[in-house]
Specification:
Layout (H helix, E strand, L loop, with lengths): L1 E5 L3 H7 L4 E4 L11 E6 L4 E14 L17 H12 L8 E12 L1
Length: 109
């Protein structure tokens, strides 16, 4: 089972069904369709399990309206780049590679 970490307030959005998509800049877990996922709070506690049902590789500048369905919204592109720069502790630009992972909850732990 592959682990995905989520920072607050995202776990609550996942558990409510509002968030069904996550974007990852560095996918060192090589997540693909059909993979079983363990969803964790940042402190290392599991809050749910899921299965990856759609995976897409793209860049930030190639994001489509469909890519935002099930994902948290940003007021503007600059806020989005800043948010991900803070997450990954590096500069995120429109050219940065991105993996979009749509998942379906299978268990709440």
């Amino acid at each position: 089972m592959k682990i995905l970490l989520f920072t607050d307030p995202l776990p609550a959005q996942v558990l409510s069904g509002e968030k069904t998509v996550t974007w990852r800049v560095e996918d060192y877990r090589w997540i693909d369709v059909g993979d079983e996922l363990s969803l964790w709070y940042n402190d290392g506690r599991e809050f749910a399990q899921a299965i990856a049902i759609r995976v897409k590789e793209t860049t930030f500048w190639q994001l489509t309206d469909e890519d935002f369905i099930g994902h948290e919204k940003f007021p503007n592109p600059e806020a989005m780049y800043q948010n991900y720069s803070n997450y990954y502790h590096k500069l995120i630009t429109p050219q940065t590679n991105l993996k979009i992972i749509e998942f379906k909850l299978t268990k709440i732990t």
